[in-house]
């Protein structure tokens, strides 16, 4: 099977990637705000805050630097403190243990 991304122009691929990113954010923040960042880190090695860091890095690469709070608001769809108050729970001992084990198995890098 041919690589479908080759059928897209660069502009179309960028639009498709942007739409997929927006859908990911909507899924994480609207459909599944119950999924905690620590659980995402354990299972996938990234979380909403990582997405915000990557967003900030991409903006800086385009000459439009953002601060941490602005990048997080772009990812969370609201100020981080507001999202945190509405959705974030304290990590359980089990979550913390799973996070530590995941970090040992797959160190950030």
Give me the strand/helix succession. Answer: HHHHHH
Question: What is the count of β-strands?
Answer: 0
Give me the CATH superfamily. Answer: SMc04008-like
What structural class do you assign from the helix and strand content? mainly alpha
- How helix-rich are the residues, as a percent range? 55-70%
Strand proportion, as a percent range, falls in: under 5%
| Total of helices | 6
Distance, first to last CA = 33 Å
Shape: globular
Query: Which regions contain 5 or more consecutive residues with pLDDT less than 50?
Result: none
CATH hierarchy, class:
Mainly Alpha
Major sheet details = none
CATH architecture: Orthogonal Bundle
Protein model, in words:
α2 runs parallel beside α6 and α3 crosses α4. The chain has 6 helices and no strands. It has a single domain, classed as SMc04008-like fold. The longest helix has 22 residues.
